[in-house]
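Moderator note: this is an archived Q&A kept for reference. The question asked for a predicted structure of one protein chain; the sequence and the answer are reproduced below.
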Amino acid sequence: MSQRRKLVTTGHFVDPKAVEKKMKKKVEVCGQVILFTIINANLQFLKIRSNFSCSFPFPRVPTWERDRDIGIATYTIAVHSVQDVRFLFTKNLNMLERPLNLTYTHAMSENRTLLNGTLELDSASKLSANYAFHSGNCKLKYSYAHGGTTLEPSYDFGNKSLDLEASQRILEGNLIRASYKTSSKTLGLEWSSNSKHNKNLRFKVSALLELAKGLHMPILNAESIWDFSL
């Protein structure tokens, strides 16, 4: 039986000692996939995460639904952390003859409830919204994709700030992403690429510059992700 494992190594150039390693393992139990993650950061603490997905029919179906939806429940177990139980419910509808995807998420430990909606305007553009019931904050994002270029402006009604993000695919397996957050005046740049010699190996290099602090050395981060089978 082939088992997929993923090894993630992350390092920050600003702190050479900050190296984080993750080992992930997927196990199938009763037709359900369980993902275990073991995180070791600087050998100072050990954190284990586990999550699973399961499908079940609801005992009662709301009147506005025509059939039974699939419920997805996930939980995370971490040392030195509170157990987190999350419930995720999804619904696909049609609005103005356009597909509308709704996602309702509730995190019990954080007492947070989120509602996400995505409306596909056409094959190239979509509009998404995020509403947090606990804070009343709402975020709106528009996404436009053409060829290998994607533009995503978004507006945060809570912070009253406009964020911009753009990405461009170049050559094969290479992606360049740039972002700017007006609330924190933060400029980000990221480059990710797949290895030419090993399709299971990916690299990611990113830079973060806080313009509010003036001219200074940006925070650089490098990450390698390796998928392998045993």
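Archived answer notes: The two ends are 8 Å apart (CA to CA).
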